[in-house]
Write a structure and sequence with these properties.
With about 400 residues, this protein is α+β, with helices and mostly antiparallel strands. The chain has 3 domains: about 1-235, no CATH class; about 245-330, Transcriptional regulatory protein pf0864 domain like (Alpha-Beta Plaits, 2-Layer Sandwich), CATH 3.30.70.1380; about 330-390. It has 11 helices and 18 strands. The protein has a 5-stranded mixed β-sheet with strand order 9-4-1-11-10. The chain has a 4-stranded antiparallel β-sheet with strand order 13-14-12-15, with helices on one face. Helix 1 (about 15-25) packs across helix 7 (about 190-200). The longest helix is centred in the N-terminal third of the chain and has 22 residues, at about 85-110. GO terms for molecular function: lyase activity; nickel cation binding. Belongs to the LarC family. This is Putative nickel insertion protein.
Amino acid sequence: MRIAYLDCASGISGDMMLGALVDAGVDLAKVQAGIDSLGLPSCKLVVEEVKKCGFRALQLRVEHEPEHAHRHLHHIEAMIEQSTLSESQRSLAQKIFMRLAEAEAKVHGTTIQKVHFHEVGAVDSIADIVGSAIAWDLLGVEKIVSSPIPTGTGFVEIAHGRCAIPAPATGELLRGIPLAASTVDGELTTPTGAAIVAAMVQQFGPLPAMTVQSIGYGAGQKDFQHPNLLRLIVGETISSDASLPTDTIVLLETNLDDITGEALGHCSELLWQAGALDVALIAIQMKKGRPGVLLQVQCRETDAEKLAVIVFRETTTLGLRRSKIERLTLPRESVQVQTTWGAVAGIVAILPDGSRRFSPEYGSCHQIADKNKVALSAVDEAARRAFAATQDN
């Protein structure tokens, strides 16, 4: 599988992204041709080789005539629709702008149709985003993985005034995305960079096992005491399990021998409510032959500290073991099937050979069984038959 890794040690912006893509081998002339077809006023992509703290990179600038126009989403969508971009390039560009519109609408309390783009509606931002969409399509990777994203600290001036970093739209776009700690005074990740990450990255974590084919470096406009670079690594995965999605999660665990079953049950319930991916209680034998319990909690990296606080508060433990683990996951989707007693929700897992495995949701089956006074097993079986019938048609 052809894969790309974004090393965002100094954050990410639209121009850094496009510079890294060109440095990794994407034809700048083809990107420029796509930008030209948007009908923007005299917009030219210019790249030059620069050094950041002694390391070379390509710095990309968008040269254009001065303008004072602010655009709505439909203005930008119209530009993209009438352009010569391929269908896949249009789709990528529209996906990125839609994520931006959703974030702006959320922070300003309006709708995506009424969102008034300011900075991201300017010629340079449009060129960065559409250019990146074109370049990603030309690069032809099947999967994009990224490191956690640093945002920087301090304040930034935007059209709505002075805002704390990350800017409101940037923060909204980075919901659910692992952030890296940073004490740098300045904006490392911009809304355009965050939108590209939110729209295109499928996995976050360390560099995957791969055979490297090319590396591109995109330089940021500012200078810091560290290399202000975005590194793009492109290659082929070498794992035999490369077709299976992977992600990195945190495992918290502790041994307990002086806690009641009621307290453990209460703690487990709180952990589930707080977003744990899995909670397990395993019987073990501890020192002096005492029976005990191994409490294991699997969670996203962003939830680890919150869940650790719950374990310390609700149990007698004095310490937690914490480790990062990589897991293989099956693609899945939520579905509903119709039974004699009503709709039952379930999860469909896509197996490596392409076949689909359906599992009814316990809560949905329980609700239907309780409402209709039938056995839980009968609802479960009916749901499985209903799903099987949809596969036969």
